[in-house]
């Protein structure tokens, strides 16, 4: 019954676009609000926060879906990169960063979007990608770590304490990012891809 419901939903263009459209509107708000904080001059720093990058990324993914790019071969890889990025944003924020005092806008980008986008991905994005292509999810964090650590000596600004080599050492920061965070992201991605594969197999049996 559940699998039949998903197949019927995916075959109904109107329902698909309504669901994707609602999620797009929430993602749009999440992107727009980050440009209207008290100090607009801090926009460059805000755009270097992984939270904001991941929210912009998923907004772009849903926009591409709604504008007819969902059948492009590269889209499914782009969608997975967004999935891992926004889930890491939500999980890390609520387990390691948040002190519980989060305003509405904070919940949009750290809670609501990390919930809505996986619903969009697992419900509407097909097909999934192969397990051996898990490495695509490592592209964004690798580029992110590289850019932040490269700019740091000139900007004297690091978005997160664990990425600040002045509090430990550059070698320790690189070891943490490459030796711990990237393997965790890789394993997390494999789990998500396996879940997607299982779900699609179940749906297609209906």
SSE topology:
Blueprint: H1 2-11, H2 13-33, H3 43-46, H4 50-66, H5 75-97, H6 104-124, H7 139-155, H8 170-204
Helix pairs in contact: 2-4, 2-6, 4-5, 4-6, 5-6, 7-8
Shape: globular
- β-strand percent reads under 5%
Radius of gyration of CA atoms, rounded to a whole number? 18 Å
* Integer tally of domains: 1
Distance between the termini: 8 Å
The tally of helices reads 8
Helix/strand/pairing category = mainly alpha
- Helix proportion range: over 70%
The largest sheet is: none
List keywords for this structure.
mainly alpha, 206 residues, 8 helices
What does this structure look like?
The chain is an all-alpha fold. The protein has one domain (2-204). Helix content is 72%, strand content 0%. It is built from eight helices and no strands. Helix 5 packs antiparallel against helix 6 and helix 7 packs antiparallel against helix 8 (170-204). The longest helix is centred in the C-terminal third of the chain and has 35 residues, at 170-204. It starts with a helix and ends with a helix. The model has no long low-confidence stretch (mean pLDDT 91).
Could you provide a short overview of the structure?
This protein is mainly α and 206 residues long. The protein contains eight helices and no strands.
């Amino acid at each position: 019954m559940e699998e039949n419901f998903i197949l019927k939903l995916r075959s109904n263009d109107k329902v698909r676009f309504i669901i994707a459209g609602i999620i797009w509107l929430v993602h749009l708000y999440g992107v727009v609000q980050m440009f209207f904080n008290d100090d607009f001059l801090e926009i460059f720093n805000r755009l270097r926060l992984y939270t904001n990058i991941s929210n912009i990324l998923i907004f772009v993914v849903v926009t591409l879906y709604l504008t007819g790019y969902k059948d492009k071969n590269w889209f499914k890889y782009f969608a997975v990169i967004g999935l891992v990025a926004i889930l890491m944003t939500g999980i890390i924020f609520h387990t390691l960063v948040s002190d519980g005092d989060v305003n509405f806008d904070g919940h949009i980008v750290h809670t609501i979007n990390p919930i809505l986008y996986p619903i969009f991905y697992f419900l509407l994005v097909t097909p999934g990608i192969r397990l051996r292509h898990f490495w695509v999810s490592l592209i964004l964090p690798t580029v992110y770590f590289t850019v932040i650590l490269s700019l740091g000596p000139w900007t004297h600004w690091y978005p997160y304490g664990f990425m600040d080599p002045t509090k430990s050492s550059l070698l320790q920061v690189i070891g943490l990012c490459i030796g711990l965070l990237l393997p965790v992201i890789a394993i997390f991605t494999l789990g998500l891809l396996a879940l997607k594969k299982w779900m699609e197999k179940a749906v297609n049996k209906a």
